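Ticket #4471: structure output looks truncated?

Reporter: J.K.
Steps to reproduce: submitted the chain below (389 residues) through the standard prediction queue, then opened the result file.
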Amino acid sequence: MFNRLWLLFAQTITIFLALWFIVSTLKPEWLNRTSNNLLERVTLSEGAYDGKSLSPGSYHEAVKKSMPAVVNIFTSKASTKPKSKKRNDSNDPFFKFFFGDEAPDEEPKSSLGSGVLVSPEGVILTNHHVISEADDIEVSLADGRKFSAKTIGSDPETDIAVLKIAASQLPTPITFGKIESVHVGDVVLAIGNPFGVGQTVTSGIVSALGRDHLGINTFENFIQTDASINPGNSGGALVDTRGNLIGINTAIFSNNGGSMGIGFAIPVNLAKQVMESILQGGSVTRGWIGVEPQNLSKELLESLDLPKGTRGVLLSGILEGGPADRAGMKPGDVLIEINQNPINDVRSLLNQVAQLDPGKDVPVKILRKGKVIELQARIGKRPKPKVSH
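Returned output as attached by the reporter:
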């Protein structure tokens, strides 16, 4: 009797274990209906990716080509005063135009910005305001290497500076683009080191070309973009979707120090022209005639008894012994043409004279008491701007 009960028990256990094994293998969820693991009851799908193809509309290739040539610039200046004076223009919206922001009144002062490697010899383009008051300049490459840099020269009137580092195995320099290929509406990428967080890429479009009369630089011809540019981006690259350099990021219009969708870059042709002049002679040489010009307003036209459509600039002042004085120009004359090019306003006069070679004789036309007078002026050399500290 006992053996028969034991055999029945053993057979029951065997059948139960067999059933448990089958269920746990084929339908494990039957044994764990109260599980809280949602992952076991969620179906996920993954897209096919071969590791080589790029997302549609990606600018990866442009970034891959240009980003290694963008460097971070760190400057420092040991203050000789126990406390520096605070600027009184902090509420001026144009105060926010310039980056490379200095730390508060502490010793030593430090600032940061960006730059662009343009040659395998270690030549770097950046902004004048990034390095203008620096005692020491350190350049950090995209691969993490750091080098001391020396200033070859700078031009405050266009806010361009040229640095050089002594280093081997540098990244491939950036490729210069053509300003003629840049159009309003083109997609552009801004590369730099905003707020010191590290190398960053932002995208936008070209909002406008030839922006001037902003009061940022003496010579202005900016590319306007809505690509996010912030403190620390100054001196960095503005590139097209091919990875070619089309501008040097310089300024933003902002009421709070951050990007508000209005940024400005020095066009590549102007930056290259200034750089080549600095590399050739250490500075930029520009023409000059020694006048104080003033735009013609409606009131001035009426007071001078001139027709409403008169174009030119009023010479409100003439430097004694300067090129204009020697040519016979007088205060009150209206300069309407120089070197056979019409003068529309003060900005056009400044730009046209600056492009003339010192020592060159050029024809000049002025209006004096309603009569056109032709003169000859010998172009002088524009004095270096006074540096304010």
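Triage note (M.O.): checked the attachment and the full token line is present. Residues 83-106 have pLDDT under 50 and may be disordered.
Status: closed, working as intended.
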